[in-house]
Amino acid sequence: MIPARFDYVAAESVEHAIALLAEHGDDAKVLAGGHSLLPMMKLRLAAPEVLIDITRAGLSGISVDGDELVIGATTRHADIVSSAVIKADAPLLAHSASLVGDPQIRHRGTIGGSLAHADPAADLPMALVALGGSMELRGPDGTRVVLADDFFAGYFETALDEGELLTAVRVPRRPDEPWGYQKFVRRANDWAIVGVAAVAGRVALGNMGSTPLRATATEQALASGADPAQAAQYAAEGTSPAADIHADAEYRQHLARVLTERALSGQRS
Amino acid sequence: MSILGTRVLRTEDPRFLTTGGVYTEDLTDDRLTGACHVFFVRSPLAHARITGIDTSAALEAPGVLAVYTGKDLDDAGVAKIPPPFPGLYNEHMIRDLLCTDVVRFVGDAVAAVVTEEIYQGEDAIELVSVDYDPLPAVIDFDEALASKTILFEEAGTNVVAEFGNAESLTADLFDGCDVVVSHTFTNQRVAPAPMEGRAAAAVWGDDGRLTTWIPNQGAQGTKGSVAKMLAIEPEMVRVITPDVGGAFGAKFGADPEHIVVAWVAKQLGRPARWSETRYENLIAMTHGRAQRHKITIGGSKDGNVEAYRLEVIQDSGAYPRLGAVLPMLTILMAIGPYDIPKAEAIAVSVATTTTPTGAYRGAGRPEATAALERAFDLFAAEIEMDPAQVRRRNLLPPFTQTHTTKFGAKYDSGDYAAALDKALDAAGYDKLRDEQARRRANHDIVQLGIGVACYVEITGGGDGEDEGPSENATVEVHPDGTATILTGTSPHGQGHSTAWAMIASEELGIPVENFTLKWGDTDLIPEGGGTGGSRSLQQGGAAVQQASRELIDVARERAATALEASAADLKFNVERSAFEVAGDPDAAVRLTELAESERLFVRSVFTAPDATFPFGTHVAVAEVDTATGKATLRSVVTVDDAGIVLNPLLAEGQRHGGIAQGAAQALVEEVVYDADGNPLTASFADYPIVTATELPSFDLATMETPTSYNPLGAKGIGEAGTIGATPATQSAIVDAVAHLGVRHVEMPTSPMRIWRAIQAAKDKAEKTKDNLQGESFAGASKAAGSESA
Amino acid sequence: MRVELTVNGESRSDDVEARLLLVHYLREVCGLRAANIGCDTTSCGACTVLVNGESVKSCTVLVAQANGAEITTAEGLAADGELHPVQRAFRAEHGLQCGFCTPGMVMATVSLLAENPNPTEQEVREGLEGNICRCTGYHNIVRAVLAAAANGSEAGVSA
User: Fold this and answer.
1) What is the second-level CATH architecture of the domain A62-172?
2) Cα-trace Rg, chain B
């Protein structure tokens, strides 16, 4: 319940944060809202020696850049939920953020923190994959942009190189595009047993693998003119979901099909 | 205007709402200044031999004052803990305060680390190195019974206790029944999980006495346990009960940790404190339920139940505690509110390499009702009769004289059919069935299910001695107009400060706000039965009433002197809280004045003739998404008749809380172990306590059938909600998919379980269809063949 | 390290370990023990306080992260010995039994009503999904929140 000892330093700017990361390397972890990292540290599943707090480094904020929304990495879930421009241009994202944890968690947790944590059962990773978003990564050698499709590498593993910081998330603006979302849980603030996010012909599955997965067979069926019910039949194709106390692989695959059909019909839960 | 029966707001609340309750972790008592902090090293294995403990690294860590192991306690002559209920339980299942040779469940305490400051403790326990030689885990009922791996070598078996046995069963019990249904299912292990875990603070005085603060359900019982386990005279122990953040049956007596904390305080000559993490709470506080049931029910095609058999296996966990004896109560209440001509029940309790089991809201009685109600539903399904109708056919007719069941339970008063009818009416049962029929005809994805559960339960049971169960109270009136009540009960959310004040106020005419209730300090109140088994109002409240009335008698004599009148001429005017001379109201003396020259107080013991039997019916409505298997509880309507209600606000609160826990067991809760005995639900992220989102608001109907066993006419309400809600909720969920051929879904009725049940029923239906088609085809060709021959 | 923040209107400056959790800072350093610790996994909400007027689980915030912030705890809600409207509503509706979850539940409610002054029953239930109660079954807690909302605009204002 108490983290192991560490040193705490607050970065005053992005450059400062990157310099600190370079200095401490493996010994350091980035701290934003702390609601993915601190729970792990309290259980002693993570014990970094240095925490670099980036919430005062100017990385928070939502802006429009042409046909993309740009969301600073330390923007809180609560601010995404209440953002008029996100509700208008990427409502799936606002909905997804509104389901993360509970109100208290949403007052602290950030989009960058959640994505960098890369839990395949979480809401935002699957939402970003469905939206076709991308991540701005900044390191000592400069900035690069990685598509959400390529950002999630495995359980709690991302494309972030050592010394790199996730600074912003980019999301295509799709104000009038129909979308659907399904988060299948037993209890309100649980992680999804299976999740589905669908928009603009893209379908992303949560907790069906070690990263969010695209239901490519379903997407192809849709592109060939199949209706939601038909296309959803293929939702679990190519997946080998894990078994746990909530669901075995067979049941997860069944849920993926049912929830995909619902998401494709515009249902939101 | 009587205050009894009115919705008096709790006098306790302002404090809880502003500065918060003072729980054991919050104590800032001077006597605890300079306290050290105790942390436990616990076994990560379910069953293993300890081959070595290295405490050297921990001893070097910052702030570490000491590290103690089982060997240290042994060397110091600290006794081991024999199992309770000698003569009933296997005597060889002995527990160390800190394990010496063998660990028997994940969480079994192996060492205690003591630090100056709280934050140093978790750092230090990581540094204690324990070597284990793993032994096979035993977590399955049958495995435990087979006793291939035995937890206690000297016991030679894992059987803790037996209540009847297979030989005592009647082979022909079901002869003559048109229909006999048999089924085996589990009333699963759950965690009481009060919001406040376990804790302790302890200090020894210069007089050699121990003062210990422990959140508990009965300080006097806790004191006895502490004294026994420390092997000291009870007079040398003072237990003080701080505010307690919930208990639900799991904070009776004392746990090994409480004793270790006291012992540490003695060793180090300074106060010691401990408060457990939620992980520790979920694996080392006693668990509840954990019974497997085999039911057999038989009767006629038109719905008369003629015979019932219940066979119970109780998982007692690694070290037998109260859990292992609860089957006695399950057997006692086996046939509930029904008139079943032939019935028998047996039970066996077995040890497993899991957390010990104990009482949890209902303690043995929810299990009886859940088994019986499941049996009734299975029987109803078999004879294709409405489940409410089957129940009505078999309920005992109303009675006001004691009704003794064949299991020896003496029901005091009951009108079970009225409770059933009232609940069905309040729920709009017929309309619900109509809605269900519509959805079924439409093949709706989301189906509706209605579950009905009738129950009777035993509250305020005594300890089986000659005199009935009893409780004491002391009521004192002060000259300044205030009053104090000392009670032997031990509230932890039930609102006794308000309730007991109401009772005394009714007798004494002193306003409720002017009362202070004290409890839980064994120096102040040496005797008491605590709060559990829903006993408090019917015994503790009755004691307050009795003491108040006796106080009026004492005061009357003083008033007679004061007014120079004869006692017989005096009338006590409650509104004025004063004695008046009959016919001369100006000649009066106030009650509080009579306390001026001499203290005015009375201690009284109320003895009830016996336990009482509240009863009721719950009707739960659930929706099941047949595509995903997800069940949602839509409504719960209940009748919980616990006699005359003293404070409806408090009674409703108890019912709500009970219903929520009962429904949650049917819906989601379960303590899960893997095959190696590793707990998989050891945090609130994994053990699913429901949030407000998972529950509806509840509809509580009122019904009050008094008991004659106490002047308040009250029975116990605390556990009734839990007892009715579990089977009603499970039943509603099964009912939602019954038309698809599902007869049963194990608890908790997870989405996967429900979905699988639907698939299995579908597969069975298809196989049956295939078989039937095959048969008719064969029949036709045979006929054709014979014709053509 | 040094932290400076305002707690219930009072400025404070303290030397703390970097790993000191806000809940322990409030309880052990400030002596404000209404917020309780009920779990290890940020699940139960018994530790809920307001940081800059918004509900947070103080067990999952380092006091270092709250540097410069304004913290409000249950002790700081009531003005001059009068109960805050939310506290009054909890009492009126019997929305507490053992009291352990109550300060957190009250603070979560204050924050909820500040953001949504007129919630439906469903919104109340969802709004409190971060707070676990084992005693009440939530029935009366929901009634208390709705009563507080009905009783006016002061209900959602943090102290």
Assistant:
1) 2-Layer Sandwich (3.30)
2) 29
